[in-house]
Amino acid sequence: MSWMLVIPEVHYGAGRHSFYILRDLGPEGLKTGLKLNFATQITYVFAIALVKVSVGLFLLRLTPSKQYKYFIWSVLGFVTFYTIAGMGEISILEH
């Protein structure tokens, strides 16, 4: 899903210096590009969290140690909490 945002974001100057974006697209193009960048970051936060959780669940299947399982569950809980807190911060910045 993120690629649907990245393609127009590149059109509106992703990876370019703001001077060149303003020169080529004007202030409205810069504003649109920054909005698309913000939306893309939201999708990437979830994607990265899902990768971390899937690796953690895979490691749970491999380990025989109960202590290591507790450690993995605590890391998964922290990743989940950190992702939710990050999304809360993004929603606060949005308003």
Give structural attributes.
elongated; 0% strand; 3 helices; single chain
Fold and architecture overview:
The chain is mainly α. It has one domain. 88% of the residues lie in helices and 0% in strands. Helix 2 packs antiparallel against helix 3. The mean pLDDT is 85.
Distance between the termini: 24 Å
The biggest beta sheet is recorded as:
none
Number of domains: 1
Order of helices and strands: HHH
Number of helices: 3
Structural class based on helices, strands and sheet pairing: mainly alpha
The overall strand count is 0
Low-confidence stretches: none
Average the pLDDT over all residues and give the rounded result: 85
Topology summary:
Elements: H1 2-11, H2 18-62, H3 66-94
Give a short synopsis of this structure.
The chain has helices at 2-11, 18-62, 66-94. The chain has 95 residues and is mainly alpha-helical.
